[in-house]
Fold this protein.
Amino acid sequence: MAKILFIEDDPLLVKIYSTRLSVDGYEVISAENGEDGLQIAETQAPDLIVLDIMMPRLDGFSVLEKLRQSEKTRNTPILVYSNLGQEDEIVRAKKMGATDFVIKANLSPTEMINKIKEHLPK
Amino acid sequence: MPISQTVYYGSSSTQKKSLSGIPQLEITPSEESINIHGQTSLEELTKQMYKQNVELAVVNKTLRVIRALYSVTIESLEVEDVTQRLVDTIVKELNLTAVLISLIDEQNNILKPIAITRSAEIIKALEYLGKPLESFVVGLDNLSNLAINVVKDKERKITGNLLDILVPHVRQRDADKVEEITGIKTLILYPILLGEKCLGVINIALAKKVDDLSRVQRETLEQLLNVVSTSLDRAQLYENLKIANEKLKELDKLKDEFVSLASHELRSPMTTIKGSLSTILDGYAGEVSKETREFLTAAYSENDRLIRLVNNLLNISRIESGRLKFLVTNVDMSKLMKDEVDNMQMAAKERGLTLTIDKTENLPLVLADEDKIREVLINLLGNAIKFTHQGGITVSAKVDKDMVVTSVTDTGNGIAPEDQDLLFKKFSQVRRGTYSRQTGGTGLGLYISKKIIEGLQGQIWLTSTVGKGTTFFFSLPIIK
């Protein structure tokens, strides 16, 4: 079954998604800061990455840039998942290669999980 | 017969000042040139003509220089640039050795040299002194410097000693050396006045030892000072405006960043509340009793209301600053409607209302900003749920010419025609001028929705029957 990496510093959000996604048979792995996220993305080969922007150590934009430079994660779907979300930030993320930009508060977990399923490689 | 005063336009009988300060001539013979027998001799007339010709020449010259100075002020608005151009123009037009303009810096309480004639001699003198021009600032309280006295007394002063304007920066022998290099023998200092305000000092340097300028030069120069002061004032005002504008831009950027950050901070806890409640309600954390479900559902939809409020405030700040931007892509309205109806299902159930989708199959894609349209739909659904007490809400969409028209129909009280005009206006809820409202809300939702839909080349409108219900419509262009 597909492996989803959450690079997200809010442990409660990670818990919500790992609870729900594991019931559907997905494997959820997580990192609580950008640096760890990069390392796990390199070594664990996730099928999809959910990426927060405001995080300690390395912010989501820098992580996104590095993920897109890396051979291993160049084509992995990346859903930027943040409560930022002014047009400039969305445009910036998409220019940098984000597959989609999701404003956290606007989607319920069900909707977010639908988005994840939609973008998972078939 | 005395020499007629009319040669110099300081006289009163033959010269009037126009409003612009440019002298105007009256070409009539003066009384003295008419003899007692009422006859004018040819000699007198010739003299008269000659004098008036000279006068005309002076006025012409003045006008030409003034025109040159005006064009300086039109070509540039940077203070330093304007000042340098004024200096160059005055030197050239009046055949002077050098001109120096210093301006008052009120903030630092100093008189600061801004521009000087850039002749080989002046450059050499500055090299000799070993300091750039702008370093020769003088405190406005330093009365040993002649220029400061000009500022204080608001009147022109003349000196033969360069030291008078160079103190406290140099000693007498350096001043003498500068005199030797530049050949300057006389300095005439004029205050640059704008009404009662002194903007600075203009220093006129002559290579001759004289008590004063020639009268022609003096008259011309005094006329020019008006132009100099207004153009410098204009440039300074412009510069201040530019600085204020930069500051405003900076502030605006900070405000934008703050709003972005504040909304992030507000939305983050709401996200985890939303996620936690929905996870419990969806049964992932064990069984939920009917009563618990009721309370949690209420909490969930109230939290969603908060999220909508923050989103609307974020939108309003962007609309008000003229920075509502759209990310236009191909949007599938059927999917969007399904998402949002699912999303609001809980809020509808909580109030005992049905929320259903009607007729959305095979809709063409529209050109729109998905997130923004989502907000419009959430606003319309939120309103419908809020204002309907029994029955339900139906969402529908159909193609009309080159648009997809989406509608939200409720079975609420309906809206009276006189209230319909107010709906799309800002703070429509507040406008009623009373706090005794039946429902909550800022009254921003429909105003924002209208701005969004119109920004996306669509329209928003409603039909309503009091007692039966209301339908809101919005149209969006189908992709070509």
Notes: Helices of chain A lie at 11-23, 34-44, 60-69, 87-95, 109-119.
